[in-house]
User: Fold these one by one.
Assistant:
Number 1:
Amino acid sequence: MNHSNKNPFKGRQFTAEIILWAVRWYLQFPISYRDLECMLADRGVQVDHTTVFRWIQAYAPELNKRTRPHLRMTNGSWRVDETYIRVKGKWVYLYRAVDAAGQTIDFLLSPKRDAAAARRFFRKALKQPHTVNPRTITVDKNAAYPIAANAMKQSGELWRFAKLRQVKFLNNIVEQDHRRIKRLVRPGLGLKTFVTASRTIAGYEVMAMIRKDQIVSAPANDMKAQRDFIAALFSTAA
């Protein structure tokens, strides 16, 4: 998408309002592209499910990017874990971190589960405007995490007093949070390639952040405020 272009909806056959309505609904509820096609038809809008898929591919990563600067600060107690997602018959790994309060720190879809992937995930998380260098990082028994953390301490990317704890039960909070994303992945048959999966999951994750009260101006259960916040991100009237 061309960022110099003021209107991200230019050239689209449908209005920004309809597109963002479809994108928001798809990314926060377990519905399929065909479900959404029927829901739009009910509102008098004839859209093919393949068009809805293209909207998600275009606007989910854009929504993720535009939301980042508005997220509340997370705390320095990280709970990190990875979960499996099936993409075109193969398992890939979704690295995820939440803080002690359950707020999403970051996520990364990776084809591999190793120390290099763990390090890439930590680096990505540390670059976000809503994160702090962690005091503690709670992980499972995956041997890749200590290797990644030690290498990052030596390179000065991670605070050298940060404590890595390998305690399984402390990670219940992040495992419960995985379920929110897993519930959405099932009906979505858009995970045909690694790239489409990455874009769609970025959308699921950012809508989950919004629903978890991570935006000051868009409270957790206020659908209207969330709609207005997203419309403002794309500079369109809600």
Number 2:
Amino acid sequence: MITLHKSAHRGQADHGWLKSFHSFSFADYHDPARMGWGNLRVINEDRIAPGTGFGTHGHRDMEIVSYVLEGELAHRDSIGNGEAIRPGEVQRMTAGTGVRHSEFNHAPDATTHFLQIWLLPSRAGLAPGYEQRQFAAEDKRGRLRLVAAPEGSADVGDAVTLHADARLWVGLFDGDERAELALPPARKAYVFLARGTLNVNGHVLQAGDALALDRETALTLGQGDAAEVLVFDLAP
């Protein structure tokens, strides 16, 4: 089963300094039919105005992945991390028993455009943690690059480790570039197109569109136009 989620049907919030699109219920946007997919709970597409950001706030028992599309995102947290996240980098923060952090766009004249992703952890009460890695564009060109995988899994390699039963691939597609990915039929998958256009299993996606897949066995991606896509393999 494949369900198309159009960009225009996402929740929206405009706080002036922050413009956000919510793929699933979040904050003041609530849709009982869109509470997540498998153990994927949040995909927020956020744009932070220059010189503004999220003040210090707390999280618990969530795996939080940040993926920057444009600009920089300055991260600082209560467990001693202070990093700038740039395009091509993947950051994972394990909120666990509790962590406080801030996220800020220090640029005087550029918007930070990024994806905030929440995954339900495999268990509650984990120790807070942090990891950040860079993935070169050439490693994602015309293919799906594994960028996050469960800790201890055989395929984790140099991907960011997740304390969640989930994997995340990222790919860049243009023109005739094409890729396929086998899907475990007992699991769920989610495809989110961050920008451009892309044909996925016969569905033409525009930026912000997504496909929710249940008991499918394969993905075929191609006919892209400046496409950047995220693909999730998820616990059912």
